[in-house]
Amino acid sequence: MKRLLQLTLAALLTAALAANALALNTTPGEGVTVRPARATWNTGFFQEALIRKALTELGYDVEKPKDLTNPIFYKSVTLGDVDYWANGWFPMHDAQLPKNFDAKAEKIGYVAKAGGMQGYLVSKREVEKFNIKSLDDFKRPEVVKAFDQNGDGKADLTACPPGWGCEKVIAHHMKVYGLDKYIDPVKASYEAGMAAALGAYKSGKPVFFYTWTPNWTVFKFKPGQDVMWINVPGIKPTEAQAMAVDRMTVSGVEGAVSNPLKAGFVVSDIRCVANRKFLAANPAAAKFLEEFTLSLSDISEQNTRMNEGEKSEKDIARHADEWIARHQDLWNKWLTAAREAAAK
After folding, report:
1. What pLDDT is recorded for position 215?
2. How far is it, in rounded angstroms, from Cα 216 to Cα 132?
3. How far apart are CA 272 and CA 277, in angstroms?
4. Which of 177, 225, 306, 327 could form a Cys-Cys staple with 311, CB 3.0–4.6 A?
5. 131 and 258 assigned to the same domain
6. Which of 202, 211, 206, 233 minimizes the C-alpha distance to 144?
7. How many domains, in total, are found in the chain?
8. What is the CA radius of gyration of the chain?
9. Are 110 and 293 spatial neighbours (Cβ–Cβ below 8 Å)?
10. CATH of the domain at 225
């Protein structure tokens, strides 16, 4: 009798949950137009595509995203010209926020908590040949010569294009470590620069580049096998980094020349950023942005596919569909949470 009662209660609970799910409005965003943005680096396109698909499933009319540099996005989202993006790196981007950011916009959820590792990598062959441990080793004539690709007397570093947050940090490193005379940070298109570096490496030439995670670069250049993470000579933070000095030295980095590694960059959380009025008016969208998260391996795997040629908008949309198919239960859980938030 007790067993029968338990089964009956379980059946009633299941029926109640099913009825509740059916009662939820599956498209709470119907009639609302959403204006997303995305960063100018294409390694962040995947998460934007996934969020756009989710909001579309929730009934929103989602426009094509605007590709914006960091400072322009943060200004635009505070003005209400765009609604959100999934490419915030914090605390790295804190210095680029307008003074009225907290009043007008909000960091929400974690696309990848502590997912933003940054630093300098050097081909392992040259690390071992020249005993390279830090940027300071690039002051040695034999090291400069080995990495001087154009004969200008400086080692060539594949660096950040203008407008990226890392550009200012690299410039700071060149100044405070006295490296301007020895290293030339090449600021052309990052994708083109890294493609050239990959070709050079395959032909047996040395490589020296800045990168971050998640990124296809650490799949093509495997740390510990092809390249090594090197140190900065000492932790000398920028004004913007000063409040997060403890996040600039990282332990347990695979393929690092030392443990811990003095990366010289703050390890950042990758987060969504959205306009406060948009979030308040759209609880379903707000809840999805809060719940949405990805593993570094999933992002980097997709980034690698893009680097191998699958980089059209259709390709990225297909990658998103394939990810959803592999994680359908989790996807449905996020959507249900969003619909429940809208029903409150």
Report:
1. 86
2. 24
3. 15
4. 306
5. yes
6. 206
7. 2
8. 23
9. yes
10. 3.40.190.100
How do residues 198-229 score in pLDDT, each as one tens digit? 999 999 999 999 999 888 898 889 999 999 99
Residue with structure tokens 């490296």? 179
For 4-46, write each residue's pLDDT tens digit.
555 555 555 555 444 555 578 999 999 999 999 999 988 899 9
Distance (Å, rounded) from C-alpha 263 to C-alpha 232? 6
Q: Which two tokens stand for residue 13?
A: 């609970």
Which of 206, 238, 266 is the C-terminal boundary of a domain? 266
Over the stretch 285-300, which tens digit does the pLDDT of each residue have? 999 999 999 988 899 8
Task: Spell out the alpha helix ranges (H) of 24-135.
Answer: 45-57, 70-79, 101-104, 124-130
- Rounded distance between C-alpha atoms, residue 264 and residue 230, angstroms: 10
Looking at residue 275, its amino acid is N
CA separation for the pair 143, 268 (Å, rounded) = 31
